[in-house]
Amino acid sequence: MALDLLPTAVLCDVAPEPIVLLPRVKRLWKGATVAGRALTVWTPPGEHLSVLHALEQARAGDVLVVDCKGSLATALWGSRLSRIALERGIVGLVVDGAVRDLDEMEEMGFPVFGVGVVPTKPGREVPGEVGMPIECAGRHVATGDAIYADGDGVVVVPARIHDEVVVKARAALEQELVDIAAETGRPRPPQP
User: 173 burial class (0-12, 13-18, 19+ CB within 10 angstroms)?
Assistant: First the structure.
């Protein structure tokens, strides 16, 4: 199921608990946004064998969420994996670590949120885990949680509160339109 993109700031405003990842994880190219269901990956720093396994297991609409403890030693993702991900309908990547081939990923429009960019290739010897609960950039993430990311940051909305948070976020956005119309004296624009 595809998720509608909602502003991370509004989601944070209405969520009943903290949902934002540490700000070290940010969008790596201007204009990148994503909304989708998390498929979690834990990998030892510098290794990406489990990232490759996750790419094989991911379903259309998934966002791969990779925990490697903020390591910038090697890139865990690049343009080749982004092409494969796009072909499979994977909607983005959130990595508490590094990527490479950033210009190509921006050109193909694959949303990437991470700590940084390094050209160093990763190792493929030490396995990690796919689909288990992880701690990514200070926030608990489980497979199936909702991921929203934009220029303000990355949030994880736990599946157990997702529907409630989305209803509140949409109501807050609607109220914002009403408030703007009242302040400007212009009628509220029609909703599609």
Answer: middle
Name the token pair of 161.
């509160």
The strand pair at 116-117 and 134-136 is best described as unpaired
Phi, psi of 138 (to 5 degrees): 85, 5
Residues of the chain with pLDDT under 70: 1, 186-192
pTM value is 0.92
Length of the chain: 192
CB-side exposure of 83: number of CA atoms within 13 Å?
4
C-alpha to C-alpha distances, 27 to 74, 113, 154, 192, nearest whole angstrom: 18, 4, 8, 29
- Is 65 within 8 Å of 36 (Cβ atoms)? no
Three-class DSSP category at 43: coil
For residues 157 and 11, the answer to whether their CB atoms sit within 8 Å is yes
Q: Which domains does the chain have, with CATH numbers?
A: 8-158 (3.50.30.40)
